[in-house]
Design a protein that fits this description.
The chain has a three-stranded antiparallel beta sheet, with no helix packed on it. Strands 1-2 form a two-stranded antiparallel ribbon. A two-stranded antiparallel ribbon has the order 6-7. The protein is globular, with a radius of gyration of 26 Å. By secondary structure, the chain is an alpha+beta fold. The protein has helices at residues 2-13, 49-53, 71-74, 87-90, 92-102, 109-113, 123-126, 138-142, 184-187, 198-201, 226-231, 235-238, 256-259; strands spanning 54-55, 58-59, 157-159, 170-172, 175-179, 242-252, 272-282, 286-288, 294-296.
């Protein structure tokens, strides 16, 4: 009896090692439950593991990752392939600006200060758990689109000054805002997808502009001037306000002690402090946009 107890203790302390990979159930046969107790639910509940994880490129640890070209997702959703080359993913313009502004000082500036809101895979928008895919909601879009001209202003949220003494009032996702007039479409309950469809994000078609739903009333004198309709965006006149930032500085600090000298909201990499000279919320300045039209800039 005593030896039996000793044997049970040894088994508990030193269990058998897992079988070598070759002796386990082969994933290609679709039975992964020997090691994994999770599986797809919701809209993907009829799929097996190999439907997403085993593709022509081989086994995919993360079928949605852009590092593998989102091969597991595009296998069934080829219509979204254009999304991988869209500005929302490539950020070529932003990277060019950062390279020209900070490249000589820090070649990794973009990754340190700009990467948090940039897409790394399909799950960034469709839920963090690949086994529970979900349709993006308003809060999903605004977790990243919360700055200038990219979402916060749609709901009447103007970014506050960076100094800590101004960090008060309305707070959304840890960011403080000044309350302003929301967009009339937000007040009417239109979501981001009402204008920015998946097809437009993938580059198959442009996002809906104002005239897709509204035709100018020519009895309004401003609408009767041809150049207003041909050379100006509707928002050039109809934007009641716009968030603006003047004089943006990135201060590189050498230690946490130096960093604490600045009573400023902390963002980006630990070695940098971002500070703006001035933030305003009033009538937007106008300029020429990438469609060669006069627009808020």
């Amino acid at each position: 009896m005593r030896w039996m107890i000793v044997w049970l203790v040894l088994v508990a302390l030193f269990p058998d090692k897992p079988a070598p990979a070759a002796d386990r159930v082969c994933p290609e046969k679709g039975n992964c439950s020997g090691c994994h107790q999770t599986g797809p639910t919701g809209i993907h509940n009829t799929l097996t593991c190999i439907d997403c994880h085993n593709q022509s490129a081989g086994f995919l640890g993360d079928p949605s990752s852009l590092s593998d070209g989102a091969a597991g997702c595009l296998h069934c959703h080829p219509e979204s392939k254009g999304f991988l080359q869209s500005p929302m993913v490539t950020r070529l313009t932003e990277k060019k600006v950062v390279r020209e502004s900070f490249g000589d000082i820090d070649q990794h500036f973009f990754d340190k200060n700009c990467q948090d809101c940039h897409i790394s895979g399909c799950l960034d928008c469709h839920g963090r758990d690949g086994h529970r895919i979900s349709r993006p909601g308003e809060e999903t879009c605004h977790s990243c689109h919360r700055g200038y001209f990219v979402g916060a202003d749609y709901y009447g949220r103007a970014p506050r000054e960076d100094a800590l003494r101004y960090q008060r009032g309305l707070e959304v996702d840890g960011v403080r805002y000044l309350k302003m007039i929301p967009d009339i479409h937000a007040e009417a309950g239109l979501s981001c997808g009402a204008c920015h469809t998946m097809a437009s994000l993938a580059g198959a078609e442009p996002a809906k502009d104002c005239r897709r739903c509204h035709q100018p009333d020519l009895s309004v004198i401003e609408h009767s001037i041809d150049t207003h309709l041909t050379d100006m965006e509707c928002s050039a006149c109809h934007a009641s306000w716009a968030p603006q930032e003047y004089g943006t500085f990135y201060i590189r600090v050498g230690s946490e002690k130096v960093r604490n000298y600045f009573p400023i909201k902390k963002t980006g990499a630990e070695e940098y402090i971002k500070s703006s000279y001035l933030k305003r919320q009033d009538a937007p300045p106008l300029g020429i946009n990438n469609r060669d039209k006069i627009s808020p800039i």
